Amino acid sequence: MKSTIFAVGLVVLVFGVAILAQTQTESAEQELMKLENEWMEAVVKHDTASIEKLSRMQADEFIHMFDGSIFTKAQIIELVKSRKEEILSYVVDEWMVRVYGDAAVVMGRVTMKMQSADKETTDQSRFTDTWIKRDGRWQCVAAHNSTIAQK
């Protein structure tokens, strides 16, 4: 009888922990997608407040690789500030979020329409962002974008 009660208690404990872990993972996934969307908004707006918000999302050691080039956090912030093109739309689909405790990887496909002088362009790329949770908040430590070749 005692062993049956112990076994049932153990099963309930294991399922409870599994449900709690699943809930925490889903919550982290939602938080990371929200941060990614705020990041996109900051890039689109590229005003002072948005750039400061973007800077807080990125760790000091942040590195961004884009089509073979490597950029530091300071270089990315400067690129956002000095951008001349107007971003007309920035849409992410094919989201994938993987959470590993205090680390996470966010992937997706971006379709971006831009206006430069009198020319409108549409580009697609895939991204992978690596996030670390520090002092209770997520910060991006690495980003990678690869342009999808247009057919």
Q: Can you describe what's shown?
A:
There is one protein chain. This protein is of the alpha+beta class. It has one domain (2-147): Roll (Nuclear Transport Factor 2, Chain: A), CATH 3.10.450.50. Helices cover 42% and strands 46% of the residues. The protein has 3 helices and 6 strands. It has helices at residues 2-45, 48-57, 73-82; strands at residues 58-66, 69-72, 86-100, 103-116, 119-134, 137-147. A 6-stranded mixed β-sheet has the order 2-1-6-5-4-3. Strand 5 (119-134) and strand 6 form a beta hairpin. Helix 1 (2-45) packs antiparallel against helix 2 (48-57). The radius of gyration is 20 Å and the shape is globular. The termini are far apart.
Secondary structure elements and pairings:
Blueprint: H1 2-45, H2 48-57, E1 58-66, E2 69-72, H3 73-82, E3 86-100, E4 103-116, E5 119-134, E6 137-147
Parallel strand pairs: 1-6
Antiparallel strand pairs: 1-2, 3-4, 4-5, 5-6
Helix pairs in contact: 1-2, 2-3
- The total count of helices amounts to 3
Unreliable residue stretches: 15-23
* Topology-level CATH name: Nuclear Transport Factor 2, Chain: A
Helix content: 40-55%
Mean pLDDT: 85
The side-by-side strand order for the widest beta sheet comes to 2-1-6-5-4-3
CATH architectural group: Roll
Q: Biggest sheet, open or closed, and with what strands and sense?
A: 6 strands, mixed
Order of helices and strands: HHEEHEEEE
Number of strands: 6
Radius of gyration: 20 Å
CATH class: Alpha Beta
**What number of domains?**
1
Q: Between the first and last Cα atoms, what is the distance in angstroms?
A: 69 Å
- Which overall shape is indicated by the principal axes computed on the Cα atoms? globular
What percent strand? over 45%
Structural class: alpha+beta
